[in-house]
Amino acid sequence: MHTLIVEDNVLVASGIKAGLELHGFTCDVAASASAAQLLIAGSQFDVCVLDLGLPDGCGLELLHQWRTRNLVMPVLILTARSTLEDKLAGFQKGSDDYLTKPFDLQELVVRLQALHRRSAGRASDWLEWPGLRLNPATHEAWVEEQPVELARREWSLLGALLQANGRVLTPAQLHDSLYGFEQDVGSNTVNVHVHNLRKKLGADIIETVRGLGFRLGSAYCKGCA
């Protein structure tokens, strides 16, 4: 799950990032409203964790700008402001959830997973495709009712393709899902992970759409003739 963390406190931001990444999230951090705007313009995020006290403006105003532009990315406000008036203002500006500091990391993880699930229109945590099931909350992967062990990046790539529901994702989109906006990795890493998934799950699990990118195999069924 590609997550934008908007937080100006370096220690808090790094702690959130490290904690979420342990649960399989891919995170980018913005320390200001202007930095968040640049990241939003250059990448696509599944969810956002938004602090309100930013050095160049209020997080509520940033959220209001996003909603005015019809940006539907789920946003969880994470702040020390805990009064009822603060919470009501957050929801009125377009927040999808509100959590106060200090907070429990596990609660943040579960809330973000729920936001992402609801934004995708799913009632269940499970992502499903013929012959294939993944659970983002528990990191379980099943192929033809058999559990499969996947590396973190393989799991993230497969999850991104499942969430795309058959649509083609470009290598750049998959790169963002795996590594985030700032991490500098080799240009061939997505192809390496695709290759490894095909070895583990079958050659037809992922289709290459020449000149565009990748999508789940339309007729994938491991073990079928």
TrEMBL record:
Q: Looking at the UniProt feature table, which residue ranges are given for the DNA-binding region?
A: 124-218
CDD domains, per the entry: trans_reg_C
| Ranges for domain Response regulatory | 2-116
> Gene3D superfamilies given for it?
3.40.50.2300, 6.10.250.690, Winged helix-like DNA-binding domain superfamily/Winged helix DNA-binding domain
Name the keywords, alphabetized. Answer: Cytoplasm, DNA-binding, Phosphoprotein, Transcription, Transcription regulation, Two-component regulatory system
List modified residues, type 4-aspartylphosphate. D51
A Pfam entry, by short name? Trans_reg_C
InterPro entries assigned to the protein according to its UniProt record, in alphabetical order: CheY-like_superfamily, OmpR/PhoB-type_DNA-bd, Sig_transdc_resp-reg_receiver, WalR-like, WH-like_DNA-bd_sf
Record PROSITE patterns: OMPR_PHOB, RESPONSE_REGULATORY
Enumerate the spans annotated as OmpR/PhoB-type domain.
Answer: 124-218
Q: Where in the cell is it found?
A: Cytoplasm
- PANTHER family registered for this protein in UniProt: REGULATOR OF RPOS, TRANSCRIPTIONAL REGULATORY PROTEIN QSEB
Q: What is this protein called?
A: Response regulator
Q: Which organism is it from?
A: Comamonas jiangduensis
